[in-house]
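Task card 7
Instruction: Convert sequence to structure tokens.
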Amino acid sequence: MRKPNTNNKASTSLLALLFAAGLLVGAIVTFYITFQEITDLSKEVETLQSQLSSLSGIQNATYQNITIYQNSTALADMYEGVRESVVLVQGTTSEGGVQGSGFVYEASDRMVVITNYHVVHDTSALSVTFSNGNGYSAVALGTDPYVDLAVLSVDAPPSEFKPVEVVSSSTLRVGETVIAIGNPYGLVGSLTTGVVSALGRSLTEEDYAGGYSIANVIQTSTPINPGNSGGPLLNAVGKVVGITTAIVSESQGLGFAVPSNTILREISLLITTGTYTGHSYLGVSGQDMSYNVAQEIGASVTYGWRIAAVTTGGPSDGALNVGDIIIALNDTPIRNNDDLASYLEEKTLPGQSLGLTVVRGSSTTDVSVTLGTRPPPPV
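Output:
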């Protein structure tokens, strides 16, 4: 009998064992690689979910802004909240009846109506009619033609007065939504919307203000028509930021409003004294500089305000000369009359010393002027 070969059996067993071990190692390696891939994929999914969540939050925030400021329902709600504060102002002049708008304001526990000066100028039989149709006699407590502002006392019961809040106009920015409510052409309670299209404008008023500038005026795309005069210009949440005026003719696509800061600055004095005398007076007249003007006169600057006349005996007499170009007030750059008028109105008072930087001929010099008070407006 032949003896079995034990060496062959041992080799076969070893090979089988090695094969099995290889399969096991391969399975372990494959599992590890697959596990890593799954882990990495899970992390990527979590990252994408986080980014998607952030993106969704941004979209929600944007939607909320649109809801607050542009949604028609929100605008309708805002109108309902302030419409009872807007009134119709009427009066009689030698040329017939006049009408405009106004709004109720509470000043020092007293209810008054604010409107434009040009609405009540030279009127008799002045009256105010509220949104419910109730009308009452009114008298002017105080007026300031230099800013086209008037404050009225109305002989009406307390229940008629629904005051609106007046806030600072300093935070206004070009592009912000604004709303005007008033009575254009007698269409009581009309609402129009637009945006702030410019700030710091100045308007020259010949009839009531003697040719002086109404300073720091808000320019808006909100349509302002005859009858809107004196009504409120509101921000997107229904707070007064200006008082609309329609004294500028042929201003297609443009409206103008005196800023609410002017109201807040003057209201107390207008109620208690009937007038406001805080308008600074430089005692000069002039024109805006430009590239063409600079080329024509050989000036070294293309901006600023060039003096054309100095009032004899006025604040600037002896300090400024015809031909001087004002380029700064107290180190604040001045580009044109808008800047000059706005700075004088907002930053100065009569009696203060004002530092002016002027271009005089081929040199730049600093001069000082003690500001005066504007002469009384024409009657």
